[in-house]
Amino acid sequence: MPTLSAYDGYELAYHLVWEGEPLICLPGGPMRASAYLGARGDLSRVRRLVLLDLRGTGGSAVPGVGPGR
Predict the structure, then answer these.
(1) Going by C-beta distance under 8 Å and a sequence separation of 6 or more, which residues neighbour residue 3?
(2) Per-residue pLDDT tens for 1-55?
(3) Range of the domain at 36
(4) Strand-pair category, 48-52 with 22-25
(5) Are strands 11-17 and 48-52 parallel, antiparallel or unpaired?
(6) How many structural domains does the chain have?
(7) What are the phi and psi torsion angles at 55 (to 5°)?
């Protein structure tokens, strides 16, 4: 799973869906972004979705990652 580094060094996981202009999608709750795929409608037909797992959820909850851990 790909990750990106937050400004404080914490690694955040994300998932890519489809092709085209990127659109960053943030989950609306405490679950991994990929759990909200059903709510995206047909956006993936026209945009490349970047589904970000917020800190402490999904692939961003890996123990020992980030400063002070």
Answers:
(1) 11, 12, 13, 14, 59, 60
(2) 899 999 999 999 998 888 889 888 887 777 777 666 555 567 778 888 888 888 8
(3) 3-56
(4) parallel
(5) antiparallel
(6) 1
(7) -50, 130
- Does residue 42 contact residue 15 with C-beta atoms inside 8 Å? no
Assess if residue 64 is contained within a domain: no
Give exposure, 7-26, as e/b (b: 16+ Cβ within 10 Å): eeebebbbbebeeeeebebe
Burial class of 50 by CB neighbour count within 10 A (0 to 12, 13 to 18, 19+): middle
Considering the domain boundaries, does residue 69 fall inside one? no
Phi-psi region of 22 (alpha: psi -120 to 50; beta: other; left: phi over 0): beta
pTM: 0.69
Q: Which residues pair with 52 in a beta bridge?
A: 14
Tokens of 60: 């961003």
